[in-house]
Backbone:
């Protein structure tokens, strides 16, 4: 077991300054506020301080872990306030359910053993399993209940432009909750105080140690930047490359695919840490799956060859011959040429809709905050967009069922009506049938001719209505009134 606070080093090697993939930094007390929430960029910078944004993304992001050991009493106190074991007791009184909201588990002989009961969680039973069976408590998506975690994850979703989920792990002394594994998300853990040893592979992972201590071991990835969660037997992953202890106020980042495991030392009561995960299904390959169909759709409208029929019985043939492969390669080269030389604008639809419909609403937003503000705008006013960080534009085929030719339209999608209480919990059976209608109801539809004016509004702090990039004043008023009625636009006060 490493001594707490010791320098991170490679196992079975002499300590070297140049080749240490995990950076450990000692941060002394600071009189400034623990975290800055002024903007998403400022928040993330304060989260990883003193490492700068450029240094983080050039040297660590998707490359190697980063460990920040801190000696900051104010930051440790703030981390501790984010979640504690006493919070679980209060939440049990609100009707937490096993599996849905909370798991109880322990790693025994290298395997995860789930100790869940049926139905609602009783804290007395949960505490008994925690103390007597050395079980780890894993609470799913605590931002649903804790306002400050809502605030943190909302800032991170704005910064990364992707969904950010979280779990809290509380592990008793001398215990481990999960076997070695890796995830398909980028993870950041904030440790609290519990005893737990688990090896994980994640996408973007940030770990915040909230209280107590946790002993971490990191391993060389078996699948770099893995796309799925996987358990890995210790006889396959080999010895750990890094071995260290996190204390309250410390932070750990490791890239997707990093195998890891963690346990609570036997000389502390418990360990609590917060795992923040992001960037799941946010690879170049995922983006291509989203935008290429739109490129093909546009190319089919221009290219007669792509509209010609397939060879007879192609779909029923047991295999596809080289001639078909050759023709597909020719079409793909044509698509690539169009993208490179014709300045073709890529249209992401599915990824944008998934993000905007499932992300957190703005922090502490009340329903009254999304009502129209002030009087309706006129052509003489100067206007500005509200909640700009929570708006997205998509260009996609009209979803109306008509006999007319398919036309492209612009959707303004927003997350103002999303429910914080269901964030990252998946769709319930009751919601499945209405899922698409719910997404559409959270946005507005405009003709494609309005796209330039919408981009103008999103890129500018304020825009005189008369200067909106639309030909007719009637169209300018229609655009402004549509946004204003949805609570997305207001009249700027003159200075």
Residues:
């Amino acid at each position: 077991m490493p001594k707490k606070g010791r320098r991170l080093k490679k196992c079975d090697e002499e300590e070297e300054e140049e080749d240490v993939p995990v950076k450990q930094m000692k941060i002394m007390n600071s009189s400034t506020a623990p975290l800055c929430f002024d903007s998403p960029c400022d928040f993330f910078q304060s989260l990883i301080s003193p490492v700068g944004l450029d240094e983080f993304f050039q040297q660590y992001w998707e490359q190697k872990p980063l460990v920040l050991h801190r000696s900051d009493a104010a930051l440790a106190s703030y981390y501790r306030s984010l979640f504690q074991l006493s919070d679980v007791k209060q939440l049990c009184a609100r009707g937490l359910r096993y599996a849905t909201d909370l798991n109880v588990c322990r790693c025994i002989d290298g395997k995860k053993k789930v100790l869940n009961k049926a139905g609602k969680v009783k804290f007395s039973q949960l505490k008994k399993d925690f103390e007597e069976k050395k079980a780890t408590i894993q609470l799913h998506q605590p931002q649903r209940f804790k306002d400050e975690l809502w605030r943190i994850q909302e800032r991170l979703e704005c910064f990364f432009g992707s969904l950010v989920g979280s779990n809290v792990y509380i592990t008793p002394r001398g215990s481990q909750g999960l076997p070695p594994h890796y995830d398909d998300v980028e993870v950041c853990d904030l440790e609290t105080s519990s005893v737990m040893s688990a090896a994980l592979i994640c996408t973007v992972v940030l770990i915040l140690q909230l209280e107590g201590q946790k002993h971490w071991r990191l391993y060389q990835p078996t699948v770099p930047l893995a796309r799925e969660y996987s358990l890995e037997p210790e006889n396959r992953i080999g010895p750990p490359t890094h071995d260290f202890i996190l204390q309250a106020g410390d932070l750990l980042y490791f890239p997707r695919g990093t195998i890891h495991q963690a346990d609570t030392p036997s000389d502390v009561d418990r360990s609590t840490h917060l795992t923040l995960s992001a960037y799941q299904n946010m690879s170049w390959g995922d983006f291509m799956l989203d935008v290429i169909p739109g490129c093909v759709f546009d190319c089919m409208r221009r290219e007669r060859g792509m509209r010609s029929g397939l060879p007879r019985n192609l779909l029923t043939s047991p295999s596809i011959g080289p001639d078909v492969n050759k023709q597909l390669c020719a079409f793909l080269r044509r698509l690539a040429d169009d993208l490179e030389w014709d300045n073709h604008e890529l249209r992401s639809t599915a990824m944008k809709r998934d993000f905007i419909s499932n992300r957190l609403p703005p922090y502490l937003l009340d329903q009254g905050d999304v009502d129209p503000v002030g009087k309706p705008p006129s052509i003489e006013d100067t206007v500005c967009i509200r909640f700009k960080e929570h708006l997205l534009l998509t260009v996609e085929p009209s979803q109306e069922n008509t006999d007319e030719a398919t036309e492209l339209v612009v959707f303004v999608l927003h997350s103002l009506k999303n429910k914080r209480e269901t964030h990252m919990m998946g769709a319930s059976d009751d919601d499945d049938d209405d899922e698409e209608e719910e997404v559409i109801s959270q946005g507005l539809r405009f003709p494609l001719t309005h796209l330039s004016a919408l981009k103008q509004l999103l890129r500018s702090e304020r825009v005189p209505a008369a200067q909106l990039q639309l030909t007719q004043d009637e169209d300018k008023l229609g655009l402004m009134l549509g946004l204003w009625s949805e609570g997305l636009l207001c009249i700027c006060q003159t200075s």
About this structure: The first strand starts at residue 23 and ends at 27. The CA atoms of residues 157 and 479 lie 28 Å apart. Confidence is low (pLDDT under 50) at residues 1-32, 183-202. The longest helix spans residues 322-341.
